[in-house]
Amino acid sequence: MTDVQAPASTRPLIKVEGLQKLFPIGSSRFRAPDAHVHAVDGIDFEIAPGESLGLVGESGCGKSTTGRMLVRLMDPTAGSILLQDGDEMIDIAAIDKRDMLRFRRRVQMIFQDPFESLNPRRTVYDTVAEPLTVQRVGSVPEREMRVAKLLDLVGLSPADTFMFRYPHELSGGQRQRVAIARALVLDPSFVVADEPTSMLDVSIRISIMDLMLSLAEEFGVSYLYITHDLAVARYMCDRIAVMYLGKIVEITDTEELLSNPQHPYTKALLSAVPVPDPAYRRPDVLIKGGIAKAIDPPPVCRFVDRCPMATDFCRTHDHPDLVDKGNRHFVACHLVESSAG
Amino acid sequence: MTISNEVSNDAPILDVRNVVMHYRTEKGDVSAIENVSFSLKSGESFGLVGESGCGKTSMAMALLQLQAENATFKGGEIVLNGEDMLKMNPAEVRSHRWSDISMVFQGAMNAWNPVHRVGAQIKEAMDLHIRPQLSHTESRERIASLFEMVGLDPEMMDRYPHEFSGGMRQRAIIAMALSCDPQIIIADEPTTALDVIVQDQILTELKKIQHDLGMSIIYISHDIAVIAEVTDRMGVMYAGKMVETGPTIEVFHNPKHPYAFLLLSSTPSITGPRRKLAPLEGEPPNLLDPPPGCRFHPRCPFVTDQCRTEEPPLAEIGGGHRVACWNWESVPPLSEGLRK
Ligand SMILES: Nc1ncnc2c1ncn2[C@@H]1O[C@H](COP(=O)(O)OP(=O)(O)OP(=O)(O)O)[C@@H](O)[C@H]1O
Ligand SMILES: Nc1ncnc2c1ncn2[C@@H]1O[C@H](COP(=O)(O)OP(=O)(O)OP(=O)(O)O)[C@@H](O)[C@H]1O
Ligand code: SF4
Ligand SMILES: [Mg+2]
Ligand SMILES: [Mg+2]
Question: How many domains does chain A have?
Answer without folding.
Answer: 1
